[in-house]
Write a structure and sequence with these properties.
It is found in: Endomembrane system. Its main location: membrane. The chain is about 55% helix and about 10% strand. The protein is an alpha/beta fold and about 725 residues long. It has 2 domains: about 280 residues, no CATH class; about 300 residues, Spore Coat Polysaccharide Biosynthesis Protein SpsA, Chain A (Alpha-Beta Complex), CATH 3.90.550.10. Strands 5-6-4-3-7-11-9-12 form an 8-stranded mixed sheet, sandwiched between helices. A 3-stranded mixed sheet has the order 8-13-10. The longest helix is centred in the C-terminal third of the chain and has 30 residues.
Amino acid sequence: MAKKEYVPLFETRQVKGRILFRCIAASILLGICFIIMYRIRYFPVGGKAERWTWIGLFLSELWFSFYWLLTTVCRWNAVIRIPFIHRLSQRFGKELPGIDIFVCTADPLIEPPSLVVNTVLSMMAYDYPPEKLSVYLSDDGGSNLLFYAMLEAANFSKTWLPFCKKFQVESTSPEAYFRTASELVNVQEWLSVKKLYEDMKMRIETTTKLNQIPEYIQKQHKGFREWDFVSSKHDHQTILQILIDGRDTNAVDIEGNPLPTLVYLAREKRPQYHHHFKAGSMNALIRVSSKITNAPIILNVDCDMYSNNSNTIKSSLCIFMDEEKGDEIGYVQFPQCFYNLTKNEIYGSSLRVLLQLEVLGFDANGGPNYMGSGCFHRRETLCGKKYEKNYKVDWKKINDKKVDETASFLEETCKVLASCTFEHNTPWGKEMGLKYGTPVEDVVTGISIQCNGWKSIYLNPEREGFLGVAPITLLQNLVQHKRWAEGELQLFFSRYCPLLYGHRKIPLKIQLIYSTYKLWAANCLATWYIVVVPCLCLLKGISLFPKISSPWVLPFVYVTFVHRAYSLAEFLWCGGTFRGWCNDQRIWLFKRTTSYLFAFFETILKLLGHSQLNFVVTAKVADEDVSKRYDQELIEFGAASPMFDILATLAMLNLFGSLGASKKATMDADQDSKVLDQFGLQILLCLVLVTINLPVYQALFFRKDNGKMPTSVMYKSIVFALLACMLAMY
C-alpha cells in the first residue's frame, strides 16, 4: 500500500535526440573503418620518409578514433534530473536537515576579500531555515584583512538577508545583484541597502589596499589578537572564530529573524609540514564543523562561486531525501557556470557542450565526477563510509542532535582539529576526507566515493545554481587547463586509475568515461602530429591523403564534415553562437598543442622523479586594460610565455606551408590541377589551421595594443618555423 502512495521527489528523463546521435555516431564509425582500410591497403612501399610519416599519421588517426569511441560511450545514454521542490516542502516541512557550507580561499591578493565576502553573503542568503544553515570560510592565506572583511560581512548580513527574503532575490551576491538588477520594487529601500553595501565594499577595499587594519577596528574584536602570534601566512597557529553563533538568541537580523552560523578558520601551517592545498583545507573544515554544527549535508564552493539560485539547497535535498532512490546517493553535483563570459565566449570557458550534454551521459551510467565546487555531499561519504544495501537515513533522528557547548569553548577545543599534526597516523587524506597527493583531489575523492558503493547525481537547473569568474586572459586559461590535464594524467598513472582502482567496484562504462578526462593530456601527441607533419610533408612533396579524384577521399570528407557539423549543431542547441563555436574550436587546438603538451611531459618527468607536485591558483582579478580587451573579445597575448612561443611557431609553420603549396600550384600552370588533386586535403588542412590562427597573425603583425604578441615571440616563431621548413625540404 505504501508503495502505491510513494511520490518521488525527483524525476529522471531521457535526453532528447539520442537516436539521432546514435545514428550519426554509427555512420562516423563506419567512415572510420573505411579510413583504416585505406591506410592499410595503400601503405607506401617507396622511400623511408613516406613510410614513417604514413605510420605516424595512421597512429594519430587510430588515437583520435579510440578517443572518439570513449566520448561516444559517455554520450550513448544520457539523462536529466528534475527535482520537485514543492513536494519536499509538503513532505518534510520543518524536518529539513542542517547544511554546512564550506567556502575555500587561498590568497587574498589573487582572490580579493571583497570577492570572498560576496560569495559568503550569497551562501548565507539561501531560501532555507537560517537556524539550519552554517557557513564556514577556510582562509588558507591566514589574512587578517580577510578576517576583517568577514566581520564586515557578518554585520551587513543583518540587513542583506531580510532584504533578499523580502524581495525574493535569486542572485544573492550583493555585487552581482546590484550589477544586474533592473526592477526596483521599493526604490528607497533598494538604494539604502545598495549604499550600505557600497560603503562596506569601500572600507574592505581601502583596508586591503593599505594592507593594514586600523587600530580602532582591531580593538573591536578579540579575534585580531590572534595575528600577534602570526609569523607569516606559511607559519602560524590555528585561528578559529565563530563570528555568528546561530544558536545565540541575540544573533538576529534587523527584523528579529535568526542568522545563520558564520565561522572563520585559518588552519595551522608550519614550514616543515605539507598542508596538502585545498584537500587539506577541506579536511580541516570537515573535522571542525563536525564539532560545531555537524550537519549531515555539506556544500563546498570555491570563493568566486556565488549562489545564483535561492532554491539550490532544496533541489539537492530532493535527491538525498527521496525515500526510494535518495539513500544511495553520495553527492549531488551542480555545473560550474560563469557570469563574465563574453557573447561569443572568446576562450571557450563555458564548456557548454561538456556540461550540458556529456556529463548527462556520465550521470546515466552511475553518476558524474566530483568537480571540486558546487557539490553537495553526505558528511558520511566524505568521512569514508561505505554504502550498504539496506542503508536508510532517519532524518528526524539526525535533526534531533544538538551541540550544547558555548562558542568560546568550541573555538578553543576545535583548534586542535585543524593543527598540522592532527592527521599523523590517521586515515585522513587516504580513507577519510579528500584524498592527498594529486592536484585533482576532487576527482580522486569522487572516484573513491563511487568505489565505496555510492552513486552521484548531476543537477543542471534552468537557472544556474552557481556563477563564478572565468579566466579573462588566454594564458590564465591555458595554465588552468594545464593544471587540470596534468592532474588527470597523474591520476591515470596512479593507484587511483579508474580502470584499476574501479575494477569490480564501479561499472566498466564509468571507468571508460573517467578515462576520457584522464587522457586529456595524451591528446597532445596526435594533435601535434596532425598540425605539424602534413604541413612539412606538403613542402617536401609527400602525399598523406587520397587524391581528390579518388573515391577513398569520401570517408575522410564525410567523417570530418559530419563530426564538425554535428559539433556545431550541438553548440548552437546548447545556447552558443556560431562565432562562439569557432572560438571553441580555436581554444581546443590551443589547449592541445600547449596546455596538454606541458601537462603530458611534466607528468612523465614527475613519474621519473624529476618534478614536484605544485598547485596554481587562477587569478580572479585583472587590470582595467585587460578587462576592456576581454569585453571587446580580443585575445590577450601580452605576456611572454613558452606557450605563446609554441602557438606562434605552429601558426607561422602552417602559413609557410600554405604559401609554399600555393607557389607550387601557380608556378607551373600545367601541373596546377595535378597538385590540387594529389595534395588537396593537405592544402585544405593547412588552410583550416591558418584560418584558426588568424588572431595569432593579428597579434604578431597588426595589433598595436598591449595585448599583442611580444616582439621576441614574433622573431622566435619566424626563425623556428623557417628552420623547420628548410629541414623538411632538405
